[in-house]
Amino acid sequence: QVHLVESGGGVVQPGRSLRLSCAASGFTFSSYALHWVRQAPGKGLEWVAFISYYGSNKYYADSVKGRFTISRDNTRNTLFLQMNSLRAEDTAVYYCARGGSYSDYWGQGTLVTVSS
Amino acid sequence: QSALTQPASVSGSPGQSITISCTGTSSDVGAYNYVSWYQQHPGKAPKLMIYDVSNRPSGVSNRFSGSKSGNTASLTISGLQAEDEADYYCSSYTSSSTYVFGTGTKVTVL
């Protein structure tokens, strides 16, 4: 069965960096586009970034453009999110999700807290 | 990238039908048939309920249905059950090749 497991979250100071990972199993990783979606505490879902099958196309929300970088390693079945210049408003649970125009499988999320 | 507009809350009694609206623009909901709906219970990951406006994934109850008219998409839950109480989010592809979620709707079963 399909599994997506995020890791790398934690507490980080404003202005610092963090790299999230999402390990995938149970499907042909390179055949699917992927997303990062986040949810601030008590708030709604916010789309963060998208990457195509082989990583040639990447798109970002305006709120993270220029600070976050999405990437993938199809040999390791892993999705990444490099987050730089973190701000308090980046505090959220970060989910990875499989799919293009819709996401049929989601991970359980990893919490990122940006605080001094 | 403004969030799609959903009502903050919708409620209904068991067995009733409710409809959640999702209003966007001609650059997102109105432009593409790439609207999806997600159910989220507290502390859980979102679950896909409807994709491409009106398609239901395998395993999702046929009590859930989706539609679209112009810039507004809708999710209807018929025969409301206690387990349907959750937050619901719509999502759409946009003309900027990005995606946007709705503001979310809390469904309460009375």
Commentary on this structure:
The complex is a heterodimer of chains A (116) and B (110). By secondary structure, chain A is mostly beta strands. In chain A, 0% of the residues lie in helices and 50% in strands. In chain A, strands 2, 4, 5, 6, 9, 10 and 11 form a seven-stranded mixed β-sheet that branches. Chain A has a four-stranded antiparallel β-sheet with strand order 1-3-8-7, with no helix packed on it. In chain B, strands 1, 3, 4, 7, 8 and 9 form a six-stranded mixed β-sheet that branches. The model of chain B has no long low-confidence stretch (mean pLDDT 97). Helices cover 0% and strands 44% of the residues of chain B. Chain B contains no helices and nine strands. In chain B, a hairpin with a 2-residue loop joins strand 5 (64-69) and strand 6 (72-77). Classes of the chains: A mainly beta (116), B mainly beta (110). Chain A binds chain B through residues 35, 37, 44-47, 50, 57, 59-63, 95, 97, 101-104, 106-109, and chain B through 1, 3, 32, 34, 36, 38, 40, 45-48, 51-52, 57, 87, 89, 91, 93, 96-104.
